[in-house]
Amino acid sequence: MSDDLETLRQETLAALAVAADRREWDAVRVGTLGKSGRLTALLKELGRMTPDARKLRGAAVNRLRDELSRAIEERGAAIEAEILNARLAAERVDVTLPTAPERAGMIHPISRTMEEMAAIFGAMGFRVAEGPDIETDWHNFSALNTPDHHPARTDQDTFYLPAQDQGRERVLRTQTSGVQIRTMLSEEPPIRIIAPGRTYRADHDATHSPMFHQCEGLVIDRGITLAHLKGCLTDFLRAFFGKPDLPVRFRASYFPFTEPSMEVDIGWSRKSGEIGGGDDWLEVLGSGMVHPRVLANCGLDPREWQGFAFGMGIERLTMLRHGIPDLRSFYESDVRWLRHYGTSPLSPALLHEGL
Amino acid sequence: MKFTLSWLRDHLDTTATLDEICAKLNTIGLEVEGLEDPGAALAAFRTARIVEAVQHPNADRLRICRVDAGPGFEEVQVVCGAPNARTGLSVIFAPPGTWIPGLEITIKAGAIRGETSGGMLCSLRELGLGEEHDGIAELPADTTPGQSYADFAGLNDPVIEIAVTPNRGDALAVRGIARDLAAAGIGHLRPWLAETVEGTFDSPIGWANLFPEACPWVLGRTIRGLRNGPSPEWLQNRLRAVGLRPISALVDITNFFAYDLGRPLHVFDADRVTGDLLTVCRGAGEAFQALDGREIVVSPEDCVIADVAGVQSLAGIMGGDATGVTADTTSVFVECALFDPVRIALSGRRHGLHSDARHRFERGVDQALPVAALEAASRMIIELCGGEASEVVSAGEAPAWQREARLRFARVAGLGGVDVPADEAVTALEALGFAVRQRDADEVLLDVPSWRNDIAMPMVLDQAPGLDPARARRAEDGARAVDAECDLIEEILRLRGLDSIPPVSLPTLSAVPLPALSPRQVRAATARRVLASRGLMETVGYSFVAQAAAARFGEVPEALRLLNPIAADLDQMRPTPMVNLLSAVERNAARGYPDLGLFEVGPGFSADGQTQVATALYSGHTPRLPGRTAEPVSLWDAKADAFAVLAALGAPVDGLQVTADAPGHYHPGRSGVIRQGPRNVLGYFGQMHPALLAGRGLDRPVVGFELFLDAIAEPKRRRRAAPDLSPFQPVHRDFAFVVAGDVAADAVLRAARGAERTLISGVRLFDVYEGEKVPEGHKSLGIEIVLQPVERSLTDAEIEAVSDKIVAAVSRACGAVLRG
C-alpha cells in the first residue's frame, strides 16, 4: 500500500477511535466517504489514470474503502450501543417500589354459597325460585299444615307486621317454604326448585341471628320416593363439601309439612372440626316427603303426585365449609372479615372449573 | 324430656347397652340431646376398709394406713392426712392413675416423707360430690371392700335427654319411650297394670262440667287422712335426675306420673276447697294466683276449675296457690282429666305459662288412660302418705277417640323407596300398640292406639283460596285417601331406620341441564360481580333497622314496622340497603378503616312492596402514593360504577338521562337521578347529604348510589347485525363552547351528537373551564368529536360542513357560543 493510502488509513482509524459521539463520528464518515471526502477524492482520481495504473491503484483504493467503511460502520454501531447503554442506565428505576394498591372487591360468603347451591342443584335439574320476605301467615304456616295452635308454630318465634286490608296476618317468613307453596300453585308438576333467601326468627344470641338465610328445595313428580330424597341430598352434600365419600346419615324426625320427616347428619370430627373425618355426626339439614295435606292445600292430588322437600341453613353450611367461627360476623360488614372470607368475583361458582 | 336408664328399665326389659339404646333412640326419631353418666367419672373409685392406721414416723399430721380395697388391692399402703383416718373405717379408695375430679389431678403411686403411698383415700368433695370435707368420707361400717363406689352409692344411673318432636306427645312419658324402643327391637315392654283402689266413702267434692268442648272428661277422688312429708329417696333421686325439684310427696307423685306415663295430674288440698263442687268452666275475667306466684287474669277462652270462692286452677296448665297442697295437707282431691289440646295451647300461649302439664296436654295425652292413671296415683299416694280413698267422681264421658288406619303394603315401597315384608310391617305396628282388625295379602286395617294422637287424626286442610273447585275437591279426596297411610309408613320406616333405604340419585331431566337462574336472578349475580370486580366489598345487612335511621332514607310506613321487634333498633323494614351501608361505613371508620367501598344487592321495602336494590357506599380517600396525592372519593366514582352496572345489565346507557333531583339523603347539588324516559327511575347517585353524616364521626366525604334492578328492562335477545368496520381513519375535532353556567353538559353533548347522524361516532367532554377567560356566569366546555367516514376519506370541506352543523346545533339548543 502506498504511503498516502496508509496515511489516510491511519488517520481515519485514529479519528474514529477518538470520535465520542454521533456527531464526531459522522464528521469522520463524511470526511472520508462523503462527497468531498478524502477517500472519495482518491476514487475520483482513478478515472484520470492510465488503465494499468488504475488497475493497480484501484484495487488498493477499493480495499482501503472496504476496510474504512467497515471500520466506520463498526464504530458507529459501537457509539449507538454506548448511547443506548447510557440511556438505559439513566432510565433505571427502583423496581421494588410497590404498585398502587388495588381495591380488591370480594363476594360475600353467603352469596358465594348460594351460587354454589344453584350450581350443584342446577346440575340436577333444579331451578332457583324466589318469593317475598313478607308473607301471609297462610303461605308461611297454614298451607304447610301448621295451623295457628300448632306447637311447631310457637317454636319458631315469628316476627309479625300489621295486617293489611283486613286480610290475613303478615309475617316475616320464618322459612322460604312460602316459595314452594307459590310454585305449586303457579306451575304444574314436575317441579324441581330450590328457594334460597332471607328468613327471620325472633332469636338473637351467639348461634342465632334474627335474620339468616335458608335454602329450601322441592321436588314433585310421579314416583318420587324417599330413596330419591336420600340420593339427591347425599349427592348435594358430597358435591358441596367436595368429599365423594362423605358419610351422610338420615334420622327420623318431624316437621308438620313432611311425612316421613328426617334430619340429615354428616360425618365430622368434633375434635378437629374436619368434615368427613372422625366418628361424630353433625346435623346439617331437615327434609321429608311432602305431606299429602300440603299437596292438597295447593290443589295437587297426593294420589297422583308426591315428592320431597328439604331446608338448610346457608350460614351454617358456610361456617362448616370454611371454618367460620361466629355467626354474627356475617352481618357486621367488617372489611377485614370480608377480605378474609370473601371470594373473587372472577372465580364464580362453575362446576366445570370445580367449586 | 329427661329420664334415667333405671327408670327406663322399669318399663323396658332389655339387655342393650346404654350406647345401643342411645343409637336406637336417634334412629327412631327420639334424638338424644344429652347424656350424663355421673357414674362414668367415678368408675375407678372403690369401697375399701382401713385395716390398720398408724402414725407416720416423719410427719405429725400424716397416718400410714394399711387398706383393703378388694380384689387386686387387698393390701395397699396409703399415706393419708385426714384426721379421721382410723383403723376399721370404711372408706373410698382411688387407685393410682385415677382422675380426681374435685382436685383436677391424676394421682400417682409414690412416697410421702419416705413412706410409700399406693393410692388415695377420698372425701366426697374430692369426688366432686358436694362440699363436705371434714376429712375422708366415712362409709357404713359393714360396707364390703372392693365394690365400685358409684354402684354402691347409686350414682351409676345415666340420665338421657331426648328431643321430643311436637307430634310425639306419647314420648313425653318414660313408658312411651320404652314402647318405641321395644318396637324397634331393643327389648320388651314390661306389662303395666294399675290395681284398683277401692273407694271407702263418697267423695265430699264432686265435679260439674260447664265447658265440655274444652274438657270432655274429668275424674277425681278425695283421699283423706294422709301426711304430706318429703317423698322417699328413690323418688327424689329420680326427679332430681330429670331436673325437677322434689317438693313434697304429693307434688312429687304428680310429677312422677307426668314423666312416667305422660299423664299430668293435679292435687287440690281438699280442706282448702270451698264448697263441695269443683266446676270446669270458662274464665270470666277474674284473677287468681297461680302456683308459680304469678297473678293470672282468665278470659272466657280459658278453661278454668273453680270452687265457690273463685278460680282455683287454669285447667291443664297450672293450679292455683290458694288450694295447693302444703306440708300440713291431710286431705286431697286428685284431678285427672282430658283437655282439648288446641285450647290448652292457646291459653298457655296467651298467658305465657309453660308447665309440664301444658307441654303434654297440648301435644295430646293417652285418651284411654285417665281411669287407670287415677288408680295408680291413688295407690302411690296411699303407699307414701297413708290415708284412704273415696269413690271416683267424674263429669263428662270418655271421648270417642277410636280411629282406624289402612295400609296398602305396596305403598311402603311406593313412598319409602324400600320393600318391607308385610309381616315385618305389621309386627312393628303391633309392637307400637296398633291392633290388626283385618288383613289380606295387599293391605291391613288397624286400630290406632289411644296414645298416638298423631296418627289418622281428622283431616284439617286449608286450601289455597281461589283454587278451581273441582281441582280442590280432587286434591282433598286424594289427601283423605292417603293421609293415615302416610302416618303408618312413617312409623314402619322410622322403626326400621331410614339408613336401610338405599339412596337413588334423581333421574336426569335433560342430558345438559337448563339454566337454574332466571334472567332477573342473573342480573343480581352480574351486578355483584361487576361491583366486586371494581373494588367494592359485598356486605349483607339485616332487612330491619331502627325506624329513626330508616326515616332518613325514605318512607317508613307503619305497615312495615314490626309488631314484635327483637330489639328497639331492629323495628322497621328498611327502605334501602343504604341504611345498613352507612352504619357499616361508620363502624369500619371507628375501627380505623375509613377508606373503603361497600355494596349490597338486597331488598328494599316500601308500601308498594319489595324491590331489589344494588347499593354502594364509598368513603375516605385513595391511598397516598409516590407522585400521587390522596384523592377523596367523589360522586364520579359512584356514577362510574353505577353506569358500569347498568352497562353490564344491558341498559341502554347512551340513551339514559340524568336529572338533578335525587332524594333527600343525597347532597342536593351533587347528586343525580338516572332515568330511562321521564317515568322510569333506574337509580340515584351522588354525594351523601352532609346532615346525614353529622355526628357520626365521618369527617370524610361519603358518596354512593342505589340502582333498582327490577326497573331495568330485560335486554332484548335480538340477533345483532354484523359490525360496520370502516377501513377509513376517523377524524378527531375539538370544540370549545361557552354556555351559561347552568346549562347541563349533557345537553351540549346531546346537541352535538344529534347534529349529524351518519358521521359522528363519538362525542366526549374533555374540559370544563370557569374563570376569567370566559364571561361571568358562564363556562367553557371542551368537547372532542369523532367523525367516522364510511365510504371514503372526508375532504376538508366535508369536515368543515359537519363542524358548522355541530356549532349551529349546540348554539341552538344551549345558547352556546364557539369560543374564539
From TrEMBL, chain A:
Could you confirm whether the keyword Nuclease appears in this record? no
Catalyzed reactions per annotation = tRNA(Phe) + L-phenylalanine + ATP = L-phenylalanyl-tRNA(Phe) + AMP + diphosphate + H(+)
The biological processes this protein is annotated with in GO are: phenylalanyl-tRNA aminoacylation
Q: Which UniProt keywords apply?
A: Aminoacyl-tRNA synthetase, ATP-binding, Cytoplasm, Ligase, Magnesium, Metal-binding, Nucleotide-binding, Protein biosynthesis
The Aminoacyl-transfer RNA synthetases class-II family profile domain is annotated at: 110-348
Where is the protein localized? Cytoplasm
Broad class of where this protein is predominantly found: cytoplasm
Required cofactors, per record?
Answer: Mg(2+)
EC top class, in one word? ligase
Transmembrane segments annotated in the record for this chain = none
One GO cellular component term of this record is:
cytoplasm
A Pfam family annotated for this chain is tRNA-synt_2d
* Database matches in InterPro entries: aa-tRNA-synth_II (IPR006195), aa-tRNA-synth_II/BPL/LPL (IPR045864), Phe-tRNA-synth_IIc_asu (IPR004529), Phe-tRNA_ligase_II_N (IPR004188), Phe_tRNA_ligase_alpha1_bac (IPR022911), Phenylalanyl-tRNA_Synthase (IPR002319), tRNA-bd_arm (IPR010978)
Family of this protein: Belongs to the class-II aminoacyl-tRNA synthetase family. Phe-tRNA synthetase alpha subunit type 1 subfamily.
Q: How does it assemble?
A: Tetramer of two alpha and two beta subunits.
| Name the UniProt record assigns to this protein | Phenylalanine--tRNA ligase alpha subunit
**Organism from which the protein derives:** Gluconacetobacter azotocaptans
User: What is the organism lineage in this UniProt record?
Assistant: Bacteria, Pseudomonadati, Pseudomonadota, Alphaproteobacteria, Acetobacterales
UniProt lists the gene as pheS
UniProtKB/TrEMBL annotation, chain B:
Key words, A-Z: Aminoacyl-tRNA synthetase, ATP-binding, Cytoplasm, Ligase, Magnesium, Metal-binding, Nucleotide-binding, Protein biosynthesis, RNA-binding, tRNA-binding
The answer, when asked if Phosphoprotein is one of the entry's keywords, is no
Pfam families on file: B3_4, B5, FDX-ACB, tRNA_bind, tRNA_synthFbeta
Q: List the catalysed reactions.
A: tRNA(Phe) + L-phenylalanine + ATP = L-phenylalanyl-tRNA(Phe) + AMP + diphosphate + H(+)
Q: Alphabetically, which GO biological process terms does the record hold?
A: phenylalanyl-tRNA aminoacylation
InterPro entries recorded for this chain?
Answer: aa-tRNA-synth_II/BPL/LPL, B3/B4_tRNA-bd, DNA-bd_dom_put_sf, Fdx_antiC-bd, Fdx_antiC-bd_sf, NA-bd_OB-fold, Phe-tRNA-ligase_IIc_bsu, Phe-tRNA-ligase_IIc_bsu_bact
Q: Which residues form the FDX-ACB domain?
A: 726-819
Would you identify the family this protein belongs to, as annotated? Answer: Belongs to the phenylalanyl-tRNA synthetase beta subunit family. Type 1 subfamily.
What HAMAP family does the record tag this protein with?
Phe_tRNA_synth_beta1
According to UniProt, the name of this protein is Phenylalanine--tRNA ligase beta subunit
Q: Which organism is it from?
A: Gluconacetobacter azotocaptans
Q: What is the lineage of its organism?
A: Bacteria, Pseudomonadati, Pseudomonadota, Alphaproteobacteria, Acetobacterales
Q: Which gene encodes it?
A: pheT
